[in-house]
Each structure stands twice: as C-alpha cells, then as structure tokens.
C-alpha cells in the first residue's frame, strides 16, 4: 500500500516528528498516465520553436489517429472535445431553432454546443443493455417532430464509459430519415463494434484528450471526418476562418479551436501506448467483476454481442440510491474517489425546458450507478484497497 506522510501545519517541528499522521494515498477515478516518449515530442516542439497551434506534432498526431482508426478517415486535432462538437454541429448545418436529438445520459459537453449555435436540444433516454441512446426512443422522437413538420437536424449518440452504442441501428435510422449523426466518441477511443473502431461511425465523430480520458494531451480533442473537404473546413473554421488573402480577411465567423503543437507532442507519445491503456482498463474491469460480481445485488454492464469496450470507467449498479451513497461515502472515507454515473441531461436544471423522450432508464442508472477508480496506472494493491472498502461496507 502507498502511504503519504501528512504533517499538521499547526505543530512545531519536534511535535511533527512525533505526531506524523499516516494516511493512505488518494486513489483517483481516472488520472493521466504518461507512456514515456511524450517529452521527446514536446522537446522537438521546443527545439524547432513550433510553439504554435500548428506544426509537425499536430500533423504527426493526426496521422497517428488516422492510422489507428483506419477506414480512410481525416482527423483535425482541436483544443477540446467540446470545441470539436461545436464545429461538428456547425459543419452539419445546425443553426438557430434547429432540433438536435442528443443522448440524455452523458456529460454536459455533449449537449452544450447545441445551444452555442442557438439549436434546440431534445434528449433521448438510454437502453438497458448498453446504457446508450435507445434506437426505439430515437425513432419515436424523429416521428414526433416529422409529424409536426420539423425535421431534426442532427443526432448525437454517445459511447458512454467506452461501451459502444448500437451503431448499426442508429445509422439505419439516420439513413432512413436523412438525419446526420455526430458520434460522441470522447470516452471510446479504443472501443469497437463488430471490429470497427468507435470514432468512425458518424458522419462526423468527436474524440477528447482531456486529462481524465483514456489518453490525454492535458486538454484537447479531435474531429474525425470521412472527407478531406470536411477536415479542411474544420481546420479553416478552427483557425479564425481566414480567407486566402495577404491581409486578414474574413467572409465567415471563425473560432480559435486548433490544437497546440506542444500538446500534440504529448498526444503522439500517448498514441504509442493506447493499446496498452485499453488492456489495463479492461483488466481493471475484469478484476472488479471477479471480486465484486458475487456480491448480492451488485451488477456490472456486460458487453453485448459484437461490442468491445475500452472500459474507460468501470461502473457498478447497486440495488438503490441509498446503497450507492453508502458505498460512495465509505470509499471517500478511505481516500478513494468514486462518482455517481452522469446525471441525465433531461434532469439538469439548465436543460429543464428542453423536450425529452424518456422511459426512466437513465434516471434509474443515475440513482443506482457508481463509477469506480479506473485509471490504467492503478496497481493491484490499489484495486484491492477499493475492493476491500466496498466489501467491508456493502450490505444489499
Ligand atoms: C469529455 C467528454 C466530452 C468533452 O470533451 P472535452 O475535451 O473535455 O471538451 C464530450 N462528451 C463526453 C461524453 C465526454 O466524456
């Protein structure tokens, strides 16, 4: 077990030596995990003075992601996943008053950019076997708006916690009704559905490299496109939409969303260890399953047929809200970070006025679900500490 010596600052030096409080070190939910070569690429950026939102690392990082995802995709590295969603919706033509159908059980960053464009978020509940957007409720929502003569402009499904959404069913609906998909793959780099990598299913897809994600550039994101034109347009908009002129001329409103060449260096190093990170996170999940799966009333989300999750976060379902809170507080008392599942967007105060197609699934998941420490840098001692804390305090 790792211990950290903590001194009480009110004590004198002599007292401190005699009154050392030994507290088990903090176990985080999901912390950054460098591979070792990141600093080499960052150093290259310094050596060549490419300290800018363009340069060889940006290009190298984009190529590494394109190779990994394959399928001939074109990747634009951006300053955040949120910025990528904003640009993605803009490329799909979302504007004031347009309806965008968004998964309700997700992080607020999936939905916030709809409002940046003046669009109207409409939230769709989850299905039980993936925790992601229910194709049935999605179709119900589409038909509802079509019957009112208002065709939705885009669909935002999410591969939550790395578990793929039903990509084929949702693409089918997208094609049937002619509504494009912006795939939120922020949590799912390394996941697959029928052996096809997540991040390649939507008309456009979004990745995130925030500090808590499976790989990180400290902060960053990417837009994945299927045409060179889409990528070039994203890069154009992300670098202030400058027209081809010697002076600064603009015919469109631009954004400052391009990724820094320094941070892209971190990304290049991280791409070299992505596969290992996926394996570690999946091993965490398997270990929890083996040791906690037998507890009465504790459930894990299994991979449905054809799905391969990167297990970004390992989550459990407890029997009730009370049982969930008891566990969360017991872990907190042991200096272990855990977190309830995402609070559904249709229950968020800020989206209280938005229409929702819900059947209670995501609300129940939110009540009963808990995300456990899931970092690829946790060792077996850390995992055993989490398991012991849960086993000790849990009563069904
Ligand atoms: C992290 C995340 C985002 C946003 O990515 P940032 O890079 O943090 O802006 C969007 N959607 C989901 C589901 C996420 O988990």
Task: Write a brief structural summary.
The protein has helices at 13-18, 38-47, 56-69, 81-91, 112-116, 135-147, 167-177, 228-238, 261-271, 274-292, 321-333, 361-368, 380-393; strands at residues 3-6, 21-24, 74-78, 99-103, 120-124, 154-156, 182-184, 192-193, 196-197, 204-208, 221-225, 299-300, 307-308, 314-317, 339-340, 356-357, 369-372. The protein has 396 residues and is of the alpha/beta class.
Major beta sheet, specifics? 4 strands, mixed
Helix share of residues? 25-40%
Q: Please, what is the CATH homologous superfamily of the largest domain?
A: Type I PLP-dependent aspartate aminotransferase-like (Major domain)
Highest-level CATH class of the largest domain: Alpha Beta
CATH topology of the largest domain: Aspartate Aminotransferase, domain 2
End-to-end distance, in Å? 28 Å
The number of helical runs is: 13
Overall structural domain count = 2
- Bound molecule kinds, no repeats: pyridoxal-5'-phosphate
Assembly form of the protein: single chain
| Average pLDDT for all residues | 94
Just name the CATH architecture of the largest domain: 3-Layer(aba) Sandwich
Gyration radius from CA atoms, angstroms = 22 Å
Q: Name the poorly predicted regions.
A: 1-17
Shape: globular
InterPro entries: DegT/StrS_aminotransferase (IPR000653), PyrdxlP-dep_Trfase (IPR015424), PyrdxlP-dep_Trfase_major (IPR015421), PyrdxlP-dep_Trfase_small (IPR015422)
GO molecular function, one term: pyridoxal phosphate binding
Family: Belongs to the DegT/DnrJ/EryC1 family.
Keywords: Pyridoxal phosphate
């Amino acid at each position: 077990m790792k211990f950290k010596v903590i001194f009480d600052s009110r004590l004198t030096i002599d007292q401190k030596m005699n009154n050392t409080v030994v507290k088990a070190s903090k176990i985080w939910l999901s912390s950054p995990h460098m591979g070792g070569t990141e600093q080499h690429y960052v150093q290259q950026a310094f050596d060549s003075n490419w300290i800018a939102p363009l340069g060889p690392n940006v290009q190298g990082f984009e190529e590494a992601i394109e190779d990994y995802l394959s399928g001939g995709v074109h990747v634009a590295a951006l300053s955040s996943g949120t910025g990528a969603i904003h640009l993605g919706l803009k490329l799909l033509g979302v504007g004031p008053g347009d309806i965008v159908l968004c998964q309700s059980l997700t992080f607020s960053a999936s939905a916030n950019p709809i409002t940046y464009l003046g669009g109207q978020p409409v939230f769709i509940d989850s299905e039980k076997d993936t925790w992601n957007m229910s194709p049935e409720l999605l179709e119900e929502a589409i038909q509802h708006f079509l019957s009112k003569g208002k065709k939705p402009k885009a669909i935002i499904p999410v591969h939550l916690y790395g578990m793929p959404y039903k990509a084929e069913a949702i693409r089918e609906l997208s094609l049937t009704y002619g509504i494009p998909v912006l795939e939120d793959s922020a949590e799912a780099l390394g996941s697959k559905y029928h052996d096809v990598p997540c991040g390649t299913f939507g008309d456009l897809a979004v990745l995130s490299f925030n500090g808590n994600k499976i790989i990180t550039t400290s902060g960053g994101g990417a837009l994945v496109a299927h045409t060179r034109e889409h990528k070039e347009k994203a890069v154009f908009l992300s670098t202030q939409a400058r027209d081809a002129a010697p002076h600064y001329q603009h015919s469109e409103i631009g954004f400052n969303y391009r990724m820094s060449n320094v941070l892209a260096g971190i990304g290049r190093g991280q791409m070299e260890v992505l596969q290992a990170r996926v394996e570690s996170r999946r091993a965490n999940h398997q270990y929890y399953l083996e040791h906690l799966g037998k507890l009465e009333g504790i459930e894990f989300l299994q991979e449905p047929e054809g799905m391969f999750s990167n297990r970004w976060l390992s989550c459990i379902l407890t029997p009730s809200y009370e049982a969930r809170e008891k566990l969360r507080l017991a872990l907190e008392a042991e200096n272990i970070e855990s977190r309830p599942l995402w609070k559904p967007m249709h229950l968020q105060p800020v989206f209280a006025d938005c229409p929702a197609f819900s059947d209670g699934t995501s609300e129940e998941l939110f009540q009963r679900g808990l995300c456990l420490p899931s970092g690829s840098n946790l060792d077996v001692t850390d995992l055993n500490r989490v398991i012991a804390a849960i086993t000790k305090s849990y009563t069904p």
